[in-house]
Amino acid sequence: MIQKTALGAAMLCALATSALAQKTSVQSIEEYRAMLQDGNPADLFEAKGEALWKESRGPKKATLEKCDLGKGPGVVKGVFLELPRFFADTNQVQDLESRLLTCMETLQGFNAAEIAKTAFGKGEQNNITALATWIAAESKGGKFNLPQAHAKERVSYEVGKRLFFQRGGPHDFSCASCHGQEGTRIRLQDLPMLTKNPGDGVGFAAWPAYRVSNGQMWGMQQRLNDCYRQQRFPYPGFASEVTIALGTYLGVNSAGSVSVAPAIKR
Q1: Confidence band of 232 (pLDDT split at 50, 70, 90)
Q2: Known catalytic residues?
Q3: Which of 250, 238, 196 has the alpha carbon at shortest distance from 84?
Q4: Whole-angstrom distance, CA of residue 51 vs CA of residue 58
Q5: What's 41-265's CATH class?
C-alpha cells in the first residue's frame, strides 16, 4: 500500500514538473518577444513606408497621398482595421496590399501585374511591405471591424471559410490542421485557434510582423503564402482572390481584437 502511494505521488510530481516546464517555455518565449518589441526592426520599415507614401515615384512621378484605402483619398488612420473590404472602383474586395497595388498603378503608373510577379522582399514588393507596415502602425491599438454590408464582402468571407478548411496536398493538410483547435503548438510556437476570435494581438491582428528567425518583414500576403508552402500546396498568386478571401475570413473572425501590428514574431 505504501509503495503504491509513493508511486502515485511520484507520478503526480512528474506530471506537475512537466506541466511547469511547458508553462515556463511559453512564458520564456513571451518574455523574449517583449524584450525584442522595444527595438522592433519594423520601426525602420515604418519610416520607409511613410517616406514612400509621400514620395513622387513611378512613370507618372506622383505620390500616393490621393490613394483611397477605404476612408477617402489620403486617409490612413483607421483604414487597416477595416480591410479587406469592397471597393467600387475596382468592383473587388481588396486587402491592404492589393489596394496599394491598385493605387501604385492608377496614381503612379507602375505595372501592377509585374509587381505581383516579383518575389517577396524584392523591388516594389519590398516597398509594398514597407507601406503596409506604416499604414498598419497608424491604426495600432485600434479594434478590428471589417465591413460585411456588401454582398461581395460576404461572399469573400464564405469563400475564405471554405478555403480555411480545404484539405489537400501530399499531407492532406488544411489551415484548420494547425489553427482549428485550442492549445496546439509546433515546436515552441503557440498556434492560435482562428475559427473564432483568438484574442488581442494574436493571428490576424499581428501582421505585418518582423520575423526574427530570418530577419525579414512579412505582410499578410506573405504570411498566407508561407502557410500554403508548409501545406505543400502551390503558391497562390500575390493579391489573389484566395489570399484576400482568407484574409477576410480571419479578419471578420477577429472583430474587436486590438491590432498590435506591426508585431514581432519568432
Answers
A1: confident
A2: 227
A3: 250
A4: 14
A5: mainly alpha
Q: Which whole number is the average pLDDT over 58-73?
A: 98
Alpha helix positions (H), 80-187? 96-106, 112-117, 123-137, 151-165, 175-179
What's the pTM? 0.84
84 cis-preceded (ω within 30 degrees of 0): yes
Question: What does the chain come to in residues?
Answer: 266
The residue extents of the domains of the chain are 1-38, 41-265
User: Strands 216-218 and 209-211, how do they pair?
Assistant: antiparallel
Residue with cell 514620395: 55
Instruction: Give CA–CA dist 249/252, Å, rounded.
Output: 5
256, pLDDT greater than 50:
yes
pLDDT in tens, 142-197: 999 999 999 999 999 999 999 999 987 787 788 888 777 776 766 656 777 787 77
pLDDT of residue 171: 76
Distance CA 147, CA 257 (A): 15
Is the separation of the CB atoms in 58 and 66 below 8 Å?
no
